[in-house]
Amino acid sequence: MTKSSKRSGKAVPQFLEDDPSTGYLPGRRWPVVRYGLISLAIAAILVFAIELIVRGDFAGTVSFFLQPLKPGWTTIVVFALILIGLDAVLGRSHQSLMIVAPLTLSLAFVGHQKSHYLGDPLYPTDFLYARQIVALLPLLVRDRPMTALAMVVGIVAGLSLLVYGWRLWRRKVLALSRKGRLARLTLAVPLLAFFVSIMDYATFSWTRDRLQIIPIMWDQKENYASNGFALAFALNVPMAHVSAPAGYSDKAIAAIERSAVTASVPAEKPDIIVVMSESFWDPTKLPGVTITPDPIPNVRALRSGYMFSPEFGGMTANIEFEALTGFSNAFLPAGSIPYQQYVRTPTPSMATFLKSEGYQARAIHPGTNWFWNRGAVYADFGFNDFKSEETLPPMEKRGPLASDAAMTDEIIREADASEQPVFFFAVSLQNHGPYEPNRYYNPTHKVQAPISQWARESLLSYAEGSADADRGLERLVEWAKKRSRPTVIAFFGDHLPPLGPVYVETGFLKDNVAPRKEASPQDALQHHETPLVIWSNRTGPAEDLGAVSPAFLPYHILKTAGITHPYYTGFLGEMRERYRVVDRNLLLTPAGEATPDWARQKDIDPAIRDFRLLQYDMMFGKRHAAPDFFPETVDKVVAHMS
Q1: What are 523-552's pLDDT values in tens digits?
Q2: How buried is residue 216: exposed, middle or buried, by Cβ count under 10 Å (0-12/13-18/19+)?
Q3: pLDDT tens-digit profile of 227-259?
Q4: pTM value surpassing 0.70
Q5: Which of 9, 103, 486, 589 is the most core-located residue (most Cβ within 10 A)?
Q6: In whole angstroms, what is the distance from residue 188 CA to residue 46 CA?
Q7: CA dihedral in degrees (333, 335, 336, 340; nearest 10)?
Q8: With the CA atoms of 82, 87, 90 and 95 taken in that order, what torsion angle do they form, in degrees rounded to the nearest 10?
Q9: Distance (Å, rounded) from C-alpha 213 to C-alpha 69?
Q10: Chain centroid to CA 429
């Protein structure tokens, strides 16, 4: 009896399913500790899988987790808290994995693909134009049908397995009690809120610093490599908000030196036609490549200089933004897309100014009007109208897309029909990637190069498209030569084409895309220069412009047209005397002197500071500068509703 009493008097752990707050099966001891350890283990496996998919390198992924207090371990804790909190919401232990794992692994896969093809990591803002990615799927499917089929099969199989597993888990695992769910929420919510509070890269955080989470916003590739995919992605969420530059005030804007230049146009107003040719570049620059005949003889003969693209292989809208506004992406958060995030009210552009001087400002693009949010943005830029796939007459196709010849026909037709002077901004579509082999059934060129057959045929498809764009310029020039009205034509490529393996096989690049942070200014020029032509039927081509940022194109175009403006030819003209390239990672003077990583230096040229202040004031601030620099916008700011 005594022995039995002793036995019955022993303390028994109370962490059993008999206390239904734990949600565990009867007889399993210490479920709270076990649940926490399992959650951490699941989080660790999931974070490792995410990094492995994004990096595509097992050794690199292992090294990311080797040292303690690195962002990888912080990410594991955060993921464990997310899993615990979602378990409380769903009411079953570990069922949150069925939501978190598919979502994050899918994002990791998309991030890896974006980095592979475009060179940039996946940003939160990318989801603002997810519809555009869907619109490009037919081209991607045509390029790699078996990969597309495997993805479809995988998605269907994965979703079926997920639905089956979800239903099975709900049947087999006991529901958590209110007490158990509340305990999980009490733990997870405050800690997650704390982590969210330290993610704002614009403010210093002692805790973030101790955890060695260092926002490297000036070099996003390094940011993702150092902090890991999940934390770097979270650090980029605040980029939707642009903070005022240090010292921004009405007094700072008033202190910016005003140019003596005023707004004026010639008595005989010239038509201005700007053609931004999709991915136009000189493919003969590829090492060991011979293309016969020359695919771009007209551009080569008329070339004024080069446009220094801030992008590589994509992100066309960012080049458009600079070319139309004279503002710079260098002063905006890395990875941001002004068309998607920041243009929400009337914004000064060449269209705004020229329309105020009696021009018809028109935009043409043979694609859909919602692509890159162009419909709303062009309205805010002041264009009278925007003709797109929805409003253009049926366009003849060359390959799978509307031809450059058809777009040229439309420009000529509308210009000849207009009694008022016209400002055209045209964005071509025909030579958009991917460049699948045998894109054109009747190629007129030959490619010789010591590369694989697939790469050679892909390059041939690109060269054929470039030749068509070159012929489009030739036709515009020949048409303009016969006109009595003064006509200025600007023609340039938005970025180098996404040729991927062609670059690697020819030795032009080590990877499919150029690095964001180049080893030298010479490399940056080689990987970001596209041919630029600015030509007038009165004076011929502008000459010896060198490489210029798209933000300086308004200056060169209006100067060639004999038009002046306090910002576009005044302020930008003075800025152009100091710099010809203003890029996020590079400043380049007309003499070729380079300043890499200028934004990280303590002392920044006052001229660059004024450039940034003016841009912030007109895009996000109180527009103190409008009366002096953009007089055509005064009393005309009305919120655009879209």
Answers
A1: 999 999 999 999 999 999 999 999 999 999
A2: middle
A3: 899 988 888 776 667 888 888 999 999 999 998
A4: yes
A5: 486
A6: 18
A7: 180
A8: 100
A9: 9
A10: 18
Spatial separation of the C-alpha atoms in residues 527 and 312, rounded to whole Å:
8
SS3 assignment for 417-468: HCCCCEEEEEECCCCCCCCCCCCCCCCCCEEECCCCHHHHHHHHHHHHHHHH
> Does residue 636 carry a pLDDT above 70?
no
Rounded-to-integer distance, Cα 642 and Cα 639, Å: 10
C-alpha distance from residue 338 to each of 126, 128, 328, 437 (Å): 12, 11, 10, 34
Alpha-carbon gap, residue 410 to 385, rounded angstroms: 14
Query: Distance (Å, rounded) from C-alpha 162 to C-alpha 403?
Result: 44
* 142-194 confidence digits (pLDDT tens): 666 777 777 788 888 888 888 888 888 888 888 888 888 898 899 899 998 88
Q: In whole angstroms, what is the distance from residue 79 CA to residue 42 CA?
A: 9
Residue type, 245: P
Average pLDDT over residues 420-445: 93
CA gap 490, 275 in Å, rounded: 6
Q: Do residues 122 and 112 lie in contact, with contact meaning Cβ atoms separated by under 8 Å?
A: no
Structure tokens belonging to residue 229: 């995919």
Q: State how far the Cα of 278 lies from the Cα of 466, in Å rounded to an integer.
A: 9
72/474 Cα distance (integer angstroms)? 55
Mean residue pLDDT of the chain comes to: 86
DSSP 8-state code for residue 567: I
Contacting residues for 244 by C-beta, under 8 A, at least 6 apart: 616, 620, 621
What local confidence, expressed as pLDDT, does residue 139 receive?
Answer: 61
Phi, psi of 118 (to 5 degrees): -115, -15
Query: Which two structure tokens, joined as six digits, stand for 582?
Result: 């203003």
Q: What residues pair up with 4 in beta bridges, in sequence order?
A: none
Per-residue pLDDT band for 23 (boundaries 50, 70, 90) equals very low
Q: Would you state the pLDDT for residue 226?
A: 86
Distance between CA atoms of residues 213 and 204, nearest Å: 11
Contact by Cβ (8 Å): 533, 304: yes
Closest by Cα among 316, 322, 442, 449 to 381: 322
For residue 434, is the peptide bond before it cis, meaning its omega torsion is within 30 degrees of 0?
yes
The H-assigned helical ranges of 490-595 are: 501-506, 521-528, 553-561, 572-578
